Amino acid sequence: MSGSDASSDAGGTSAHAAALDAIRTGGHNLRHLTKEERKQKPVSSVVPAGAKPAAAPKKEKEVKAASGPPELKLDNNKWTVRFQQSKPDPITIKITDIKQSVTINDCKKCSVIILGKLTNISVVNCSEVGVIFDDIIATVEGVRSTKLGLQANGKIAQIALDKCSGVDIFIQSNVGKEVEIVSSLCDSLNVNYPGAMPEDDPIEFPIPSQFTSNILNGKLNTHPVEHV
After folding, report:
1. Do residues 152 and 142 touch, judged by C-beta distance below 8 A?
2. Residue 30 near residue 24 (C-beta atoms within 8 A)
3. Which of 5, 53, 187, 226 can pair with 209 through a Cys bridge, CB separation 3.0 to 4.6 Å?
4. ∠ CA 14-17-21 to the nearest 5 degrees?
5. Which CATH number is 93's domain given?
6. pLDDT, tens only, 58-68
7. Residue among 173, 137, 141 nearest 156 (CA)
8. pTM for this structure?
C-alpha cells in the first residue's frame, strides 16, 4: 500500500499539522476539548494556576535518528513509519483491522494521526514527534525518544516509556483516565487529564523522575520525591 493511499485529504491535514505542532511547542491554554475538537486541535502543556510547580526540567538529550529513504507502508498487520523528517503536514493512517499495529522509527519533526482502533503503537528513537490516536487495545510505547506529544482520544490500557525525555501525554476522555503509565529512566514527563466537568480546565500532573529509598523493618521502601 502506498503512502498516498494512507494519507487523508489535504484540506484536513493542515489543521492537524497545526494541532500536532501545538502539542510539541505549547501554543494554547489547556482546556477540555469537545468531541469535534479532539479530531482537530490538541492542547498544550500549561500548569493550571495554583498547581505545585515541578522541578526544573533537565536538558533533553538530542536523539540522533538514523537516516534513509522515508517509509510509510503496511506489511501484513504492521504499519511502519520510518525516516520521516521535517514534514509540514501530518501523516495520517487509517486502521482497517484492530489487529493492526503502528511502529514509528527514526523520525524527527513530524506528526502522525492514527484513525481507528488498533492493537498497539511504538515510537522508537524519535524527536519532536506528535502522535494522535483513538482506542488502543494494549500499549503505546515510547523508547529512546525526546519531545514527544501523545494524545489519546479514546480508551487505552497502558503507556510505557523507557529512556525518554520531555514527553507530554494528553488524555481527552474519561475512559482514557484508566490508563496505566509506566516509566523507566525518563525525565520531564507530564500527563494532562480532563477536568471533572466539560467546562473545567484540564489538570496537569508531572510524573516523578526522582525517588528516595530507605530500609524500614528489613524492607526497601521507595517513594517519589515531591517538589514543593
Report:
1. no
2. no
3. 187
4. 145
5. 2.160.20.70
6. 555 555 556 78
7. 137
8. 0.73
